[in-house]
Amino acid sequence: MEEFLYAQINIVGFIILAILLTNQKKSVGITIQQELFNTLIIAAMYILVLDSGMWLIDGKTFSFARELNFLISTAYYFLCGFISFIWLLYSDCKLNNTIRHLRNRLLVYFVPLLIDIVVIAYNLGSGLIFSIDAHNVYHRGEWVIIPVILSFSYLICSFVLSVHKGYSSKIAGDKRQAYLMAFFALPPVIGIMVQSIFSEVSLIWISTVISLLMIFVNIQNQQINTDSLTGLNNRLQFDKYLYFKTRDTDYKDVIALIMIDVDKFKQINDSYGHLAGDKALICVADILKKSCKNKNVFLSRYGGDEFAVVYQTRQLSNVQKLIELLHQNTHTFNRTNSEVFSVSLSIGYAVWERNSSIDRLIAQADHNMYQAKRRKA
């Protein structure tokens, strides 16, 4: 009866993944990240079917039962390595938010999968990974640890990359996402470790389903909390962050709110069209990311052509240094970019005072920003 229990668990997992895939397919303009995540879901659905098949036909006798069991087991081992490989690709793409780095490392990432394929192919004549006896019973071979280690290495690599990204990043949103990616890799890792020790327990793939479900929920939360054009946090997330940040009174750091307005943004729209206006906002967001790299900041699109930066720092002088860096990087952008427009920023800031109000902080930063804008007129 044990095999039917595991088959039922796999069916539940399959249904969950089918729901996730259906929702993913509704997305407009599929990105490489979504393609990799969809591939993970589809591969996991296949392996749940194979895993159920292995449990249900093992030890059963019917025509070509042994051959079918061997074929299913071989496909199962191949998909184990493939899923782990795609998991690492997705993690890399998610962490770096670009496929450029992924392309540079793709060949290195492929090496363990290639070794896995060779070892599985060698098993066809040797039975060193697994064998099916005359009674159609599955047996582990002496080399079974090799594909396990290869698959495990991909997940550990994903975990290490995520932790390193979280540790090295100073931007609050990037740090949180990196640590979440590390956490999402843990259930399959634990499942592999347990199932490697206790072969009669099937935990790997239901653990993977749980991780994919958590990733999907995280994606949905990101879509709710992220500005779709610039990729920065939206106003809702800004309000939440500033609220919780100003509630903490234990630290002695300076918390500065920097408000930024794009000068003559309407003129860009009127002269070059709204697509150029959108591109200008994206370019400003990139300038913010570049300027705030390795700083403890929270970046958001406040609304329209306004942006907000919450900067936590030891010294007040660092706030002015950041503003100067923003102007410097804006100047560099105008000098080196190939766009038809140039950008200029008006920037003002205010410092959080204990027992003050958030509305007062925003009003003061906004006032100082418009003072900077008037001085340009």
Automatic annotation (TrEMBL):
InterPro entries: Diguanylate_Cyclase, GGDEF_dom, Nucleotide_cyclase, Rev_trsase/Diguanyl_cyclase
A GO BP entry: cell adhesion involved in single-species biofilm formation
Record PROSITE patterns: GGDEF (PS50887)
GO cellular component terms, A-Z: plasma membrane
GO molecular function, one term: diguanylate cyclase activity
Membrane spanning residue stretches: 6-24, 36-57, 69-90, 106-132, 144-167, 179-197, 203-219
PANTHER family named in the record: DIGUANYLATE CYCLASE DGCM-RELATED, REGULATORY COMPONENTS OF SENSORY TRANSDUCTION SYSTEM
Keyword set, alphabetical order: Membrane, Transmembrane, Transmembrane helix
Domain GGDEF residue range list: 253-377
Organism: Clostridium aminobutyricum
Domain of life: Bacteria
Record-given protein name: GGDEF domain-containing protein
